[in-house]
Amino acid sequence: MLNKKEKNIIVPYTAKGxxxxxxxxxxxxLEQKKFGILEPKKEFIRKFNLKELDLVIVPGxxxxxxxxxxxxGYGYYDRFLKNLSNHVIKIGIAFEFQLVDKIPHEMHDVxxxxxxxxxxxxxx
Length: 124
Hints:
The chain is mainly beta. The protein has one helix at about 75-80, and strands at about 10-15, 20-25, 30, 40, 55-60, 60-65, 70, 90-95, 100, 115, 120-124. The protein has 2 domains: about 10-50, no CATH class; about 50-124, NagB/RpiA/CoA transferase-like (Rossmann fold, 3-Layer(aba) Sandwich), CATH 3.40.50.10420. It contains 1 helix and 11 strands, in the order E-E-E-E-E-E-E-H-E-E-E-E. The radius of gyration is 15 Å and the shape is globular. The two termini are about 20 Å apart.
């Protein structure tokens, strides 16, 4: 991992059915888009190279104790996560009520490295 003092905040946005990344400088650069999710306004999209990522925080509706996730069913994060380098840490964030023992998953699904709830942390 890089030993940089300066950190960049990178946020996702959707374009042509895929998740893309943009560097965020100010929160005022965001606006509500699909599903009410904040995304960068068009004029503030700054493309970011996936190879520069160290860590990704991934939302989900439900996670299991094997760190698999179910999202909203559109596959944005599944397609995105497959393209990440193995060194990128994938963290799922959830409330404890969103954690179950086991959910169905397929070979193409990407498990999180860590799932964090308000009460505990699941790791590999």
